[in-house]
Each structure stands twice: as C-alpha cells, then as structure tokens.
Amino acid sequence: MKYFSRRAVKPGDLNPAYRLFGGTLLAWIDEEAGIYASCKMGPGKLLVTKYMSEIDFVSSAACGDILEFGLEVVSTGTTSLTLCCVVRNKVTRQVIIVIDRIVFVCVDEMGNPAAHNIGAEKDSGMEKMY
C-alpha cells in the first residue's frame, strides 16, 4: 500500500475525549479516496461514493498527530472502482483505521451509472496522475 497524503490533527478536529472525532476522519477518508478514484478514472469523469464496508477504528489520534492515508485499488467493474484504505500515524506508523472496501461509481450528468473505461490493473501509473 502506498501512502499519498497527510493531514494534521488540529484542536477543532477533536471530540469531547480530546481524540480525533471519528466523523471527521471518515470525511477526510471519503475526500482522499474520492480524489484518488477520480485520478484513476481520468479527467471529466463524475463519481459518487456508493459504499463503505465495515469500518475498524484500531486506535485513536490526538491533537498534533500527523496522519497519512494509504489507498490501493482492490477491484474494478464496468462502472465502479473499489479501494482499500488504511490511515496511520506518520511518526509511529500505528494504524488508526482500516476500511477494506470503498466503492465509487462513475455516473453521467443525470446520476446514472456510466462506464469509466479504466483497466483492471492495480495502481499502474498512479504516481504520474496523483
């Protein structure tokens, strides 16, 4: 798995227990995974998040922690792209969360599923696009 982006945990990201709020982390994951999927699908493609599998909060993050987001392609369909995501602490490498499957679907202007025209190869050329 390759780690493509990072975020700093700030005071406004914390819950009442002074740990990273789970909803904030999930929003970050949806955004980062959406960017990754969009880069894989290519310019001009519209996509939506269709599904997230079981979410496993393995450990917590505190204010000042730097988190890095690992993403990789699990599979492709005619209209869909399925990713795996692992978020970990940049310094300690401790895993914060694992999501085995995040499914994005390419859609047309009316919101109907549309072919994305990408191959089934895993992460080939991603470094050039992201």
Task: Draw up the topology in text.
Blueprint: E1 2-8, H1 22-41, E2 46-52, E3 55-57, E4 66-76, E5 80-89, E6 95-107, H2 126-129
Antiparallel strand pairs: 1-4, 2-6, 3-6, 4-5, 5-6
Structure description:
By secondary structure, the chain is an alpha+beta fold. 18% of the residues lie in helices and 39% in strands. It contains 2 helices and 6 strands; from the N terminus they run βαβββββα. It has helices at 22-41, 126-129, and strands at residues 2-8, 46-52, 55-57, 66-76, 80-89, 95-107. Strands 1, 2, 3, 4, 5 and 6 form a 6-stranded antiparallel β-sheet that branches. The two termini are 14 Å apart.
Attribute tags:
130 residues, alpha+beta, six-stranded antiparallel beta sheet, 2 helices, 18% helix, elongated
For the largest beta-sheet, the strand count, sense and barrel status come to: 6 strands, antiparallel
Q: What's the tally of helices?
A: 2
Overall average residue pLDDT: 90
Q: How large a portion of the residues is in β-strands, by DSSP E?
A: 35-45%
Proportion of residues in helical segments: 10-25%
Count of strand segments = 6
Envelope shape = elongated
Q: Give the topology string: H per helix, E per strand.
A: EHEEEEEH
- Class derived from helix and strand content: alpha+beta
Which radius of gyration do the C-alpha atoms yield?
A: 15 Å
| Uncertain ranges | 120-130
C-alpha termini separation: 14 Å
Short description:
The protein contains 2 helices and 6 strands. It has helices at 22-41, 126-129, and strands spanning 2-8, 46-52, 55-57, 66-76, 80-89, 95-107.
